[in-house]
C-alpha cells in the first residue's frame, strides 16, 4: 500500500465481516497491527502475513481502534502471541469481558470471545505516545461512534511522513448500546480536522477505505461535518 505499510485484511482480503487490517513495519523485524478483524477469516489473515514473510510472533503491538466485532473479534487469537494489545477504556473492558451487545457480535449471531488487553488506556487520557523504530506513534482518543474509539497517528521521523488510522471514528452511525455520543462525534471530527491541518496529512485510513492527498482528505472531513449522525 505504501512503504512499510500493508493492508493485509478486509472484506476483500480475509473475510466479508472484517474491517481493514493494516500492518506497519517498525524495523528490526518488528511490526504493528491496526485492528485484527472478526476472527472468522483468521487463516486468510495469517496466510496474508506469511506471504509477506511475517510471523504473528513478529507483531510487537496491536492497536484496536474500537471494540466492535469486525475490528476486534480476533483479539482472542492474538492474545496467545507476545504482542501487546492496546485499547482505550471503556472499549478495553468490553473486549476483556466479551460483551456481545457492545461489540455488535449479537448482530452477526456470533459470540465475542473475551481477550486480554495488555495496555488499557484510561478514559481521561486523551493522547498516549510510543516511540519505536523510526516512528512516533500517538494514540488519540476519538470517541463518538463508541465511547472508547481511538485513532492512531504514525509519524515517520526519518521521512517526515504522517499516516492516520481512524477505524470507525469518522463513521456517523451511532447507537446507545455502544455508548455513542453525538457531541463527542462532532468533537472527534473537529479533532481529526485539526490533525489534518497541522500535519498536512497525506494518508488517512478508515475501517473500509484509505484516502490519499491532503486536498482529498480535507474534502472528506468537510463532507462529514455537513452530515447529520444516524442513530440506530
Please sum up the structure shown.
With 232 residues, the protein is of the alpha/beta class. It has helices at 42-51, 69-72, 75-78, 91-97, 182-199, 214-225, and strands at residues 5-9, 21-27, 30-34, 59-63, 84-88, 119-121, 127-132, 135-141, 150-156, 161-167, 173-174, 203-206, 210-212, 230-231.
List descriptors.
6 helices, alpha/beta, 14 strands, six-stranded mixed beta sheet, Metallo-beta-lactamase, Chain A, 232 residues, single chain
Describe the structure.
The chain has 232 residues and is an alpha/beta fold. The chain has one domain: Metallo-beta-lactamase, Chain A (4-Layer Sandwich). It has six helices and 14 strands. The strands form three sheets. A six-stranded mixed β-sheet has the order 1-2-3-4-5-6. Strands 7-8-9-10-12-13 form a six-stranded mixed β-sheet, with helices on one face. Strand 9 and strand 10 form a beta hairpin. Helix 5 runs antiparallel to helix 6. The longest helix has 18 residues. It is globular, with a radius of gyration of 16 Å. The mean pLDDT is 95.
Amino acid at each position: 500500500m505504501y512503504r512499510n505499510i500493508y493492508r493485509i485484511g478486509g472484506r476483500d482480503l480475509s473475510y466479508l465481516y472484517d474491517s481493514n487490517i493494516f500492518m506497519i513495519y517498525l524495523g528490526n523485524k518488528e511490526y504493528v497491527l491496526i485492528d485484527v478483524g472478526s476472527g472468522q477469516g483468521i487463516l486468510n489473515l495469517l496466510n496474508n502475513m506469511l506471504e509477506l514473510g511475517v510471523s504473528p510472533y513478529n507483531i510487537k503491538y496491536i492497536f484496536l481502534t474500537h471494540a466492535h466485532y469486525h475490528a476486534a473479534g480476533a483479539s482472542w487469537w492474538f492474545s496467545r502471541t507476545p504482542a501487546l494489545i492496546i485499547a482505550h477504556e471503556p472499549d478495553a473492558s468490553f473486549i476483556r469481558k466479551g460483551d456481545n451487545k457492545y461489540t455488535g457480535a449479537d448482530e452477526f449471531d456470533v459470540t465475542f470471545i473475551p481477550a486480554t488487553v495488555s495496555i488499557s488506556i484510561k478514559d481521561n487520557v486523551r493522547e498516549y505516545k510510543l516511540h519505536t523504530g523510526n516512528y512516533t506513534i500517538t494514540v488519540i482518543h476519538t470517541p463518538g461512534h463508541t465511547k472508547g474509539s481511538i485513532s492512531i497517528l504514525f509519524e515517520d521521523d526519518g521521512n517526515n511522513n504522517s499516516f492516520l488510522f481512524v477505524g470507525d471514528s469518522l463513521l456517523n452511525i451511532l447507537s446507545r448500546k455502544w455508548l455513542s455520543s453525538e457531541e463527542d462525534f462532532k468533537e472527534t471530527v473537529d479533532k481529526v480536522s485539526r490533525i489534518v491541518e497541522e500535519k498536512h496529512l497525506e494518508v488517512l485510513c478508515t475501517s473500509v477505505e484509505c484516502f490519499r492527498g491532503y486536498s482529498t482528505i480535507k474534502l472528506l472531513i468537510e463532507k462529514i461535518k455537513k452530515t447529520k449522525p444516524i442513530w440506530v
